[in-house]
Amino acid sequence: MAITVGSNMTMGWLRRLLPRSLLGRSVMILVTPLLLLQVVTTSVFYETHWDTVTKRLARGVAGDIATVIAVMPIDPAERDKLFAVARNSMQLSLTYVPGAHLPDLPTTIRETLVDENLNNALAEFVQRKFLTDTRSLETTVEIYVQLPDGVLQVAVPRRRLFSSTTYLVILWMVGSSLALFAVAVLFMRTQVRPVRRLAIAAEAFGKGRDSADFRIEGASEVRQAAAAFNQMRDRIRRQIAQRTEMLAGVSHDLRTPLTRMKLALAMLRDAPEVGDLRADVAEMERMVGGYLAFARGEGREPAVETDLTELLREVVNAAVREGAAVETDAEPNLRVTLRPEAMRRCLANLVGNAQRHALRIWTTVARRDDGVEINIDDDGPGIPPDQREDVFRPFFRLDPSRNPETGGIGLGLTIARDVARSHGGELTLLDSPRGGLRAQLWLPA
Ligand SMILES: Nc1ncnc2c1ncn2[C@@H]1O[C@H](COP(=O)(O)OP(=O)(O)O)[C@@H](O)[C@H]1O
Ligand SMILES: [Mg+2]
């Protein structure tokens, strides 16, 4: 158990470290092996080639110094002549300090790969006590050799010990991998773009916004996904349209027999049963009419960028003109892409319900992290929590009297939620802090 938790934690840590975007990940997949390859080749190169080259260079220098020591004359004038030759043909600056003694220090001042090779070569060829100082590696390396009656000081230029091509190779490697990285990013960007476009199209479709000219492009898998999405979208659209049309057709066709029934009832003598039948037929007519009105409104209204605050204000103003007491607290200029007529109908249904059931109404519109939230509060009787889902059902009303005076036909909330969901949003009923019902409409931004 503890192990699982531990590995989960490391996985989470790793996941946080990994790039999140497809572009970042694919570039990483491309670049990581490249970097590994570079590290491996560089280290192998460093270990073998560089090591061999510096070893040979060090042996060359040590051999030269050993030769100078072997043939060094005692006479100062002769010695200077030899030193001049050494400077010209070996690039070694030699100085002799008679009577000096080397201190008992470790043989080198700064350890690098060059020192180690140089020390080994000096020990092998010179076979005397010596000291090397590579601290000023940028220009020269100083070598001190203890001779029987003095110290020989040798300044070796850097290029005699160092292979500069090594750096060039590493430079080329780093440079070319940087160039490769840039090319990879450029290419991957064009590969990732169609995926991103597909995601945007799918999101827009979910929010009820049209994405008609969605172009199929990119790698074959992406094209496949895009084509599948387009087909799915068309199928869903066709299915919705077909359902709506079918129900509209049924409702429409029901009106003819209903009219005939009404006429037949009108011919009958007045009796209590006939009165009930007349009321039922009238109600059926209203239900069918209400449904037809809804189904017709379902036509393809395009989604446009709309000032939601303004839309709500218009709905509220209409209610106020009818005598409602409405207070509005709205963030100004909340622009959302939506189908304005459908949304107006949704808001009007909610405000109308509050108006019918309560005395006072409060509306708010505000941005909420990932979208926009509209609350319509009232101080009416509210709806018991266990019936808050039922009232969304078509033709469902809490007041069973079916009295047209006290309400509509029970389609208001059904339509309102349908509008909310077709925009990718949601409509929920809650307890209002004002005492009555809160209708909360959330829309994705
Ligand atoms: N603000 C409200 N306060 C109390 N009850 C409500 C409120 N809004 C809706 N209702 C109840 O929910 C039922 C369904 O509402 P709705 O779908 O709009 O149908 P309708 O308004 O046509 O009756 C209403 O009949 C009513 O009983
Ligand atoms: Mg209503």
What does the model show?
This protein is 57% helix and 16% strand. The protein is of the alpha+beta class and 445 residues long. Among the domains are: 128 residues, Sensor histidine kinase RisS, periplasmic domain (Beta-Lactamase), CATH 3.30.450; 142 residues, Heat Shock Protein 90 (2-Layer Sandwich). The strands form three sheets. A five-stranded mixed beta sheet has the order 6-8-9-11-10. The chain has a four-stranded antiparallel beta sheet with strand order 1-4-3-2, with helices on one face. It starts with a helix and ends with a strand. The site of magnesium ion (MG) has 5 residues, from helix 9. Adenosine-5'-diphosphate binds next to helix 9 and helix 10.
